[in-house]
Amino acid sequence: MVPPRLSVQQIPTYSPGTSKAGAVKLSSNENPYGPHPAALAALQLVAPAVSRYPDQFSSKLRSALAGHLDIQEERIIIGNGSDELMAIAAGTFLNTKEESLAAEHTFSQYHSVTSLYDGSPVKVPMRHGAHDPDAFRRFLGDRTRIVWLCNPNNPTGTAMAPDAIEDLLEYIPRQILVVLDEAYVDYVPEGRRPPTRELVDQYENLLVLRTFSKAYGLAGLRVGYGFGCAELIEALYRVKPPFNVSSVAEAAAAAALEDPSYVRDCVARNAEERARLSKGLSQLGFTPYPSAANFVCIEAGMEAHLFAAQLMDAGYAVRPLESFGLPEAVRITVGKPEDTEGLLTAIAALHEAPARSTTKR
Ligand SMILES: Cc1ncc(COP(=O)(O)O)c(C=O)c1O
């Protein structure tokens, strides 16, 4: 067998949220209401042209995003999901043996792409499931090249205070890249969102990542984007694979941007169900982390995969969080009203089962 590179030997295969036929999938933080109908129409319209390569710069989408964000096109890069942009960022800026800092319990790709490029992933301790800015300050060192901030954080759903993000940006030396992953930013209540559009004008070392996979309901098409200062984005383009975003994905994402009312509506429904789910879980004796996203995280009081397996038997797929370093925690995507009801009933039934341990967070 050909041995993988030493650094690759340390990278675990990504463990995705799973489901099974007939179950309600609440394990991957997808939009339960699906994509905007205009996005579906747009992809059908361009489908006959798929014998041609897509536009290497995804110019139509870049231009739509430039209008949406009020920023110049050359300050935007489109990725095959924001996952790809994380790998591109590490490939562009990380030298061998340099460190990247990310919270201890967060999206695994930050650590994986660091290892991929022979860097050292450093796990920064958290406070009650939230990013701890003081700990990030303490862990910065001579070898730090990238700081990853996941806001809101996957899997806990906690959001950093906008001031805390600005203070941290002010503190971090400019030769260190800060990647602010805003995959779930649409779900953050107004007033608690950091002014990221303004921050990228102020901090030349800031790269903001966003995605069409969550609130826009286009996870299967794989489209994400990044924005920052022009020089930073130009460097990323040197590493970006050609034709990384398909023509159908580009067209659908651009169409989805045209009508913001759809996302607003999905976000409002999510807020209502998130509150109902969190309250219901509290009434069942759990202590959900305060979530600003489209999922809720609890300590199950037993091995997470066993709790998830019992819920799967009851017809609900949730995400056990062993792979996030949280052996007893599960993450539950906020679904439709009937999903909330059914899930809470299923958990209440487990609760009454004698085999269940009673320790909770
Ligand atoms: C925090 C975070 N960032 C990025 C992603 C990946 O997004 P994309 O589908 O755009 O690759 C996810 C997906 O779950 C995520 O949770």
Tell me what you see in this structure.
This protein is of the alpha/beta class. It has two domains: 16-32 and 261-352, Aspartate Aminotransferase, domain 1; 37-258, 3-Layer(aba) Sandwich (Aspartate Aminotransferase, domain 2), CATH 3.40.640. It contains 13 helices and twelve strands. It has helices at 6-9, 37-46, 59-69, 81-93, 109-116, 133-139, 162-171, 196-202, 230-239, 247-258, 260-283, 304-313, 337-352, and strands spanning 24-25, 76-79, 99-103, 120-124, 144-150, 177-181, 206-211, 224-227, 295-299, 316-317, 319-320, 329-333. The strands form three sheets. It has a seven-stranded mixed beta sheet with strand order 2-8-7-6-5-3-4, with helices on both faces. Strands 9-12-11 form a three-stranded antiparallel beta sheet, with helices on one face. β5, α7 (162-171) and β6 form a beta-alpha-beta unit. α4 crosses α9 (230-239) and α11 runs parallel beside α13 (337-352). The longest helix is centred in the last third of the chain and has 24 residues, at 260-283. The model is unreliable at 354-361 (pLDDT under 50). Bound molecules: pyridoxal-5'-phosphate. Pyridoxal-5'-phosphate is lined by residues 29, 81-83, 107, 150, 154, 181, 183, 211, 213, 219, 224. Pyridoxal-5'-phosphate (PLP) is lined by residues 29, 81-83, 107, 150, 154, 181, 183, 211, 213, 219, 224.
